[in-house]
Amino acid sequence: MSAQGMTVYDVIARGAAVHGDAPAFVHGDTTVSFRAFQERVDALAGGLVALGIGRGDRLCILAQNDLAYLDLYGACARQGIIAYPINWRLTGDEVARVLERAAPKMLVADASTLGVVGGWPAEKTAVPHWALLGSAPATPRFTPLATLYRGGAGPAADEVAGDDIFAVISTAAVDVIPRGAALTHDNVLAANLTIMAATGLGPTDRYLAALPLFHITALGWTLATFHAGGASVLVSRWDPEEAVRLIDRHRVSYLSDFPPVLATLLDAAAKAGSRLPSLRHVSGLDAPQTIQRLHDTTGAKFWTGFGQSETTGFVSIVRVADKPGSAGRPVPAAQVKVVDDYDRDVPVGTPGEIVVRGPLVFRGYYDQPDVTAYTFRGGWHHTGDVGRFDDEGYLYYVKRKPEKELIKPGGENVYPAEVETVIMQMAGVSGVCVYGIPDPRWGEAIKAVLEVKAAADHSAQSVGDFVGSKIARFKRPHVVVFTDALPRGADGAVDREAVKAKWGEER
Asked: What is the residue extent of each domain of the chain?
């Protein structure tokens, strides 16, 4: 590909040469070897090039997990096309805003998302190509993706450098349009090697790719498993009973977790009478009681850490049993420190903003140079998260900074400001404060405290329904409280800390 470092496609070519006919991916009854995967990628790249899609162009994917989803990532890497996956749980308006930022040459949908984008080829003429993944019935103006695979040697791979953008991973809609973290090939390779070194990932391992491939977690672990010579078992949508069967059938050794994945898996395993004997590692975030249950009922160990899409995954990592409560020590490929509001290092034990630099840190926010410059002030990526170090060098997560307050129900990113903007559109609402509260099933839940006029006729159900009609349903408040007056500061703005102190974290 290029003398300027390895790329994701170089990893694919290496896998074909080194691991050949060993399984690389499994989906349903289909198994694809390392060699066959490179052939699929080359064939699909030929079809994309024939459409005039090339280096630097964006290709959006709005689909559930599938082998062809991985083919698209590989074909984009081969030709320097920027993969731009989209969360299929978003509403049509939210997807449209992502398209506005991405300005892609192609959008690839599947049967599950046609209800959102089916009529768009006629409306959104700025996107020249529309394709349909899977076996959905023929749809006007959508080209079946399967027809784009071309036999033979295909076109020459483009000259792609390691610091070129591989994929843009959407974060959250802090600016109405979701920000996109631009990850380079170098970022991905550094993340692969980090995971392999930390966990001992190797050719005998099997990863259950059950989280969506638009998330850095699933994408990162799938690519790391491939790089290590292992195989990934793809799951289109999470089903705990099916997951137990797949883990036992394929001897899956790794699993990524955001609540309620692990809890539901352990329930299903208990019901099926399985102790998940092949499972060695689970990584992610979860409640202490769920992690303890994993340790008590299986032989697996739970790994956690600190990371973001902007850092291509974890920049610190630890087995929970080794240092309960911590996010681990910084990995070898990352410099991590904690600073005050003036970017001065703070003493051990003192909370401050977590800042990071090194080969895991993203290129910047796609098409947002001002936001990128602010994030990278002083030569460090400012995460917006607060943490502290102990005297052994372990990082502890404390909270999010107020300007980047974020709620993560089930691993999704929800900014309170986005939900508040929607709720303020409701008649009779004169103020609102949205924040996260602990939730035993989802990790965090969304709570909304509304200031309403006495005559306002609202209920928790009507608020949730209104939010769900405007933005993704996972952004609906789980708990709604009504008051005739929210506490406010001298400037008239809602005093968020006073709201939390008064209404607390109860459901």
From this structure: 8-297, 414-503
User: Do residues 130 and 120 lie in contact, with contact meaning Cβ atoms separated by under 8 Å?
Assistant: yes
What's the gap between Cα 495 and its chain centre?
31
Q: Which of 156, 152, 171, 163 is nearest to 188 (CA)?
A: 163
What one-letter code names the amino acid at 228? A
Q: Which two tokens stand for residue 250?
A: 């394929």
Query: DSSP H helical segments within 210-368, as ranges?
Result: 216-228, 240-250, 261-272, 288-297
> Nearest 5°: phi and psi at 22?
-70, 150
Contact yes or no for 38/18 (Cβ under 8 A): no
Same fold, 8-297 and 414-503: no
Please give the Cα distance from 400 to 221 (Å, whole number).
25
* Structural contact between residues 93 and 470, judged by C-beta atoms closer than 8 angstroms: yes
| Tokens matching residue 342 | 């003036």
| Rounded Cα distance, 177 and 404, in Å | 15
Fold of 8-297: Rossmann fold (3.40.50)
What CATH topology corresponds to 414-503?
Answer: GMP Synthetase; Chain A, domain 3 (3.30.300)
Bridge partner list, 60: 84, 107
pLDDT in tens, the chain (507 residues): 555 579 999 999 999 999 999 999 999 999 999 999 999 999 999 999 999 999 999 999 999 999 999 999 999 999 999 999 999 999 999 999 999 999 999 999 999 999 999 999 999 999 999 999 987 677 889 999 999 999 876 788 889 999 999 999 998 767 677 899 999 999 999 999 999 999 999 999 999 999 999 999 999 999 999 999 999 999 999 999 999 999 999 999 999 999 999 999 999 999 999 999 999 999 999 999 999 999 999 999 999 999 999 999 999 999 999 999 999 999 999 999 999 988 999 999 999 999 999 999 999 999 999 999 999 999 999 999 999 999 999 999 998 876 667 788 877 778 888 899 899 999 889 999 999 898 888 888 999 999 998 656 789 999 999 999 988 889 999 999 999 999 998 878 888 889 998 998 777
Task: Give SS3 for 130.
Answer: strand
